[in-house]
Each structure stands twice: as structure tokens, then as C-alpha cells.
Amino acid sequence: MEGGCGNEAKLTLYYISAQEDAKCAEACCKALATLLLNSLNQQKMKELGAIEVFVQAIGETESMEVLQTGSMVICALVPLPDAKKRLLIEGRRLPVEEAGGKEVLVRCKQWVYGRKPSPEWLNAAMEVLDIKEEEAIKEQREREIEAERLVADDLFMDNRAVSSGVTPNSFRPEFYSHLELFREAVATPKKDEIGDELVELVDILF
Amino acid sequence: MNAIEYICENWTDAYVLASASKLICNLAFNNVYTALSCLAAHCDEALSTSIKKSGGDKFPDVGEAAMMAYCNLANNESNQTHVGSTGAIELAVKTLELSNDVRVLTAAAMACASMAFKSFINKTRMGDAGAIKALLEVAIGRGNGGASEEEQVSG
């Protein structure tokens, strides 16, 4: 009987510890999601070779909050549609796609947003990951034909601006509101701790 | 405000330092003007002194309160830039690298997120300070929700 109660208490402790760990991982993912909107930091993540390990960890998590915020990190690593098309035309693959990022996003859509509409950032990233090589090549050909036609009409036209099809660097929106990060601290006064020294200090200061 | 700085500079008691940090945290909570006033009174330097005096995980309450205060102080673009330029980023990254207390780590990660939010300069500063590696290690280490059930029950 006693052993049973002990196990119950230990399980409760485990539950609390697991919840605290999940909150910690969630906070880290939120920080990573905002940091990885910067291309220099994306490069650092690639250099660390951590994309595959991270995607695998998020794919296996049992915490819905970690799955949600981890998906934000994966979406931050997904480029804009033009950049993805350019990669495909150059015959390169997206590291986050190769690591199984799309499967994690699908899992997030099904489990976190199963009964409500999924957010714009998730839909946009999934659309980018759905772009196929044939589609990218076809669009590039159309752009080149258009560029040739424009140059034929105007000899001073710089056809690179039309044929590259890449939009200039733009600041991508954040995944959550800044207000979500602010917290109030709970201060509990302890009588034993407030000694005469502190009372004297109040007299000095005021 | 000057009283808070005086306390952080001259006191070594962990409870007092944690309470002073919590006061800064609550003063800056959701208020751009009071956060700016705190920064004008050098509260960011006081927080830095508090963390250094707390000796890592020896007094986790101080570390947690100070990181929460940094998070609340960085509540608009100019405050973010100010907080980021006074060593808070390096302190937050060091905390992520060295601490083993889950509440301190959570507060440090939130502080990183708040300082970097929509701030190009702080995102770059954090990347240079090694925040990506530190955050990844904590996120991957704790992403599954802690130790396994068997470990907890048998331990």
C-alpha cells in the first residue's frame, strides 16, 4: 500500500518535471523561431549540422506545445517560394525538407490544429514544401520568354531583373505576438528574511 | 529606481537580490515607459551584478528573476537595442550554456526571444554570441519532456 502511494507521488513528480521540461523546450523553440528569421543565423544552424537532429526531436515529442513551437522553427528554415524554386532549378535540395520537416508540419497540422484552422505561417510553409521541380522549371522558362520579349521591345531593358524571378530580401513576419513573452514575477515576503538591517536601509534611502 | 541599483550593488543576500530583480521585472511588465525609466536608472546593470553575485545555480531564484526582468525590459525596439548592448545577450547565452535549473533555462530562453523579437541587430548579436547552439542543446535535451518514466519511478 505504502509502495503504491510512493509510486503515485513519484509519478506526480515525474509529470511536473516533464511539464517543466516541455515548457523549457517550448521557450527555447520560441527563441529559435525568431532568431532563425535572420539568414545569418540560418547559415549558422546549417553549419552546426543540427537540422536533422532537431527535426527528429520535434517529430518524436509528445508535448503539443513543443510540437507547435518546434514547427515554427522548421517554418523559419523554409525559404520564400522564389528561393525554393531557384534551389530546385539549380538542382539543390532543401536541408529541412530532406530531414523530414514536412512530415513534422503535417503532424502539427493534424494534432495541434486538428479542430481549428491552421495559422498562415504553417499553410505558407507547407505550400512552399509542395512546390515541385517541374513547376519551378516551367515558371522559369515562362519568365525567360517574357524577359526576351521585353528586351526585344526595349533594348535598354535589363533582362536579369525579369528573368531571375527572385523578390528582394523582405522581413518575414514573426510567428507569435511579443506580448506572449512577458510575465509577472510573484514575490512572497518572508518575515525571517526582512531583518533590522533592511529596515535601517529604508530609513537611509527614503 | 536608484534604490534598486543600490541594493543590487551592495547586497549579497540571495533573497534580497531576487526580490530586487522581481521588482524590476514587474515595473517593466507590459509598460514601455516604466521599462525605459528602469533602463535610464541603470537597472540593467543592477541585474547583471545580481546574476554575477548569485553564483550560477547556487541561487536559481536570482537567475530566474533577472532573466524575466531582461525579458520584460526589452519591450520595444529602442529598449531592445539598449538591453542588447549592455551585455544582457552574453549573460543569457552563458546562462543557457551553464545552468541546469529548468526555471532559469526557461527564463533565459524567454529573455533571448524577447530581445531578438523583430530586432535585426539583436538577432545578429545573439548569433555571434552562440545562442543558436545553446538553445538547440536545451531544446533537444528537454524536448521529449524530461527523463523517462522508468527512470523517475526507479530513482
Question: How would you describe what is shown here?
Answer:
Chain A is mainly α and 206 residues long. Chain A has one domain. Chain A contains eleven helices and no strands. The longest helix of chain A has 34 residues, at 2-35. The N and C termini of chain A lie far apart (59 Å). With 155 residues, chain B is mainly α. Chain B has a single domain (2-142), classed as Leucine-rich Repeat Variant (Alpha Horseshoe). Chain B is built from eleven helices and no strands. In chain B, α7 packs parallel to α10. Chain B starts with a helix and ends with a helix. Residues 146-155 of chain B have low confidence and may be disordered. The chains are: A mainly alpha (206), B mainly alpha (155). At the A-B interface, α1, α2, α3 and α11 of A face α1, α2, α5, α8 and α9 of B.
The CATH C-level name of chain B is Mainly Alpha
Largest sheet of chain A: none
**CATH hierarchy: architecture of chain B:** Alpha Horseshoe
How far do the termini of chain B sit from each other? 46 Å
Helix content of chain B: over 70%
Order of secondary-structure elements of chain B = HHHHHHHHHHH
Distance between the termini of chain A: 59 Å
Number of strands of chain A: 0
Label the overall shape of chain A: elongated
Question: Beta-strand percentage of chain A?
Answer: under 5%
Tell me the radius of gyration of chain A. 26 Å
Q: In sequence order, what are the helices and strands of chain A, one letter per element?
A: HHHHHHHHHHH
CATH topology of chain B: Leucine-rich Repeat Variant
Main sheet overview of chain B:
none
- Percentage beta strand of chain B: under 5%
Overall structural class of chain A, as computed from helix and strand content, comes to mainly alpha
Number of domains of chain B: 1
Question: Can you count the beta strands of chain B?
Answer: 0
**What is the averaged pLDDT score of chain A?**
82
Which percent range fits the helix content of chain A?
55-70%
